[in-house]
Structure formats: structure tokens, C-alpha cells
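Q: Make up one entry.
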Amino acid sequence: MIDDGPTRRSASRREFLHISGLAGLMAPFAVRDSAEAATTASLPGFGRAKSVIVVYANGGQSQLETWDPKPHAPAAIRGEFAAIPTSVPGTLISEHFPRLAHLADRYAIIRSMSHDDLDHGSATYLSLTGRFHARKSSNPLPTPDDAPTHGAILKRVRPASQFPHSAVHVNGPAFVPLVAGPGQSGGLLGREFDPLVLGDVNEAAVGPSGLSRQPSLPTVRLDARKTLLESIDEFTQQQDRGHLIGDLDGLYTQAYRMLASPGCRDAFDLTQEDDALRDRYGRNRAGQACLLARRLVEADVPWVTVFFNHNARGQDVDPRKTDLYGWDTHNDIFVAMKNHLMPRFDLGFSALLEDLEVRGLLETTLVVCMGEFGRAPRVAMEKGFAGETPGRKHWASVYSIVLAGAGVQPGLVYGASDAIAAYPKDDKTSPSDVTATMFSALGIDPASHYHDGFGRPFVISDGQPIVRLY
């Protein structure tokens, strides 16, 4: 009998033989040839990062209104916003990103991202795992058989040594569009590999509830409770003929490590920050999430994902609440972006880049700002969506992302879209390439493998590191 992680499904003898045979066939590929691994280690940017911060623009950020404006295109293509010069001669971005325009010599823009998944759930899954969902262009619910999210893979191949969690998702989970989508968990690795998920950190001093040590619970009593719990678990496992009880053991271990570490608890306490700095990030969910990401990197968390917008399209719930807005701007795109989305993004993301640089953390932190796709070249009204003015529909054929830090060449524009930002013109880049780049930056060969509970090997990424970023 085999314990199958979160589902605790027992494998039959036939299944066991099939799995064992599969693992045997794939085992030779689980370890790369030493010469090939040495070549990977010599790639530009390999091992330059101690941490990765992903700032996720949930909902599909329009490339035309942000990083890839087309000021000479017809009005129905270029939209209402003007393009402004940046600190990098010849590079233009949106007029509603004035702070980021000033910082353009700190980051690189990729304008040739492309894939063919056209719905939020499966495209977010692709972005956060580096793999296409079996139901492409759909909004599937999470399942235990999902591919693990990036941070879960990192924990599998290189668990954090200093912090109890290898990965933290801040301002999550991501709702795509209004339910938590797949690709944000440990998936087939089990719940033990789930990232720590924090919600609205703008509302509380300490993120995880119950993290503060209670005065009435001294260390000796905490240790006694831990010993009692271990005894109960051992007895229960014996009654269950040796099966592990789900993933609870790993979860208990993480919880006790957090309780035992004052430095860990302090990392979540935003009240320790100067009020002026908190104002600089923005006193809202997204801004304070970016600030917490910086604090977590300082605490040696190797992977932090900030869902800048926890909703892909929350404006339908209450258009008066900016915190609810996502980048899914089918209609009213210019009102939503100008009044709600872009001011906060310009403030919070620029503050993160500046703060990391001032503290010397940008040298060893790879920052990646991305969404699941972009928006269509042509502005038009869409039936079935709220709004009184035109917007842009989903578009995955080309879109833009931003990277900074850990050796990425500042001021670089990598790749290009065509004249109307509809398709890549050169250097077509995929989400799997971004996955490979992030793991390579951490000094992990993206072509190497991790193993699930059955011992089956899975390649970290079938993409290629984007070496020309360096």
C-alpha cells in the first residue's frame, strides 16, 4: 500500500508496478549529465539570486496601457493614454507610470511574452507553475493532482534553512476571476509543500493569526504540548497501519518553528516600519503587501509571491472599492486603469524597487512582475460585461513583463511586439522560459528534476533561461 499524499489513496499492485516501471524508465533522466549541468551553471545570471519576488498583476495587465505603448498606432489601437519618455533614452511607457518611468534604468522589460491560453484560471496556473493546465482556456478548480506552484517546487528541491517557510504568498489567494484558482499550492507534492498564504496585511500588525507567543504559554509548556502531539500522531499512525496522517506532520513542524523564532514573528510586523515608508508604498492591500515582501526577503525567505490584485475582476462586486479592482478590464478600461489600478501600481511597485536598492537587496533579489496574459490590440465594447465605455478582451499572443535585480541588465528592452502589440516581432518568450530563468537565478538547474510522493521525477521547467537578460 502506498500513501498518495493529500488524498491518502491506496495504490493497487497493478498501479504500483506501473508507477515503479515509469519511475525506472525515467530515472536516468532525473540526474543530468555532469558536463551538461556544468554548462548550465556557467550561464549568465546563474545563482545570482538569494530570493525571488514575483509581483503578480492578476487579471491580465494591458501591454498597450503599461509597458508597450504604441503612440503612432490608430486611436482604436493606442487607446486614450499618452506615452512618456523614461530614464532610458528611446524607451516609452504609460503616462500613468511617472515613478516607474523615472526608474526605467533599474529594470528590464520583456515585450514578447506569448502563449495560447485565454482564460484566467488556466493561464494563471501556467504562469505560477510554468505548465499548461490539462483544461486549457478554462477556469478549473484546484485539485490534488495539480502541478506544484513555483515556491512548492523550491521547497522540494531546496528547503529554506533560516525561515520555516520556503515560499510565502502575500495578499492571496488569487481569485480568478472570483474563486481561488489552481496553481497556488503544493499540488501533487502534498499540503506540506503549500506556500504560507497571507491575506490583507494592511489590516493587521502580524500576518498569520496566532503567531504571537502567549505569555501564559512558556517554552516548557509548548514543548510538552509538542511531545503529547507526537505521541498521539504515533499511536494514530499505528492504528492506520503505518500511513502518515496526510501532511499534518510537516505542517506541525512549520508551525512550531514559527512559534520558536522571534525573528520570524517580527518579519510579519509592519508596525516596525517607519510611517513615512509605509506611506511611500501606499496604505492599501497591494502597497503593504509589497512592503511585507521586502521584509520577508530580509528574513531570508527565498520565494515571495505578491498578488498585487487578489481579484482578477473584483470591480463587479463594488466599483467604489479600489482594493477590489483587477486588471481584467473588458469594459471601462481607461477609467479603471487611470483612477484605480495604475496609481497604486506605480506607487507600490516603484517603492519596492527603490527600497530593495537602497538596502542593497536588489543585487541578490530577482524581482519579476507579470500577469497571466495581456489585452487585445483593439478597443471595443464587450457584451456580457459591466461598463459603459470600451475596454480590451483577453489576449495571450503577446504581452509584457518586467524583471529587475540579481544581475538583470537594467534599462534593457528584450524582444518586441508588432506595430499594434498583437504578436511577437522577435524573441518570442514563454512562461516556461520565465520559470527556467527564475530557478536558474537561484542556482537551480531548471532541467533537473524533483520527485513526488511516488518517487516519480518531474522536470522543473521545460523552458530555457533567458540569458540575454544579463
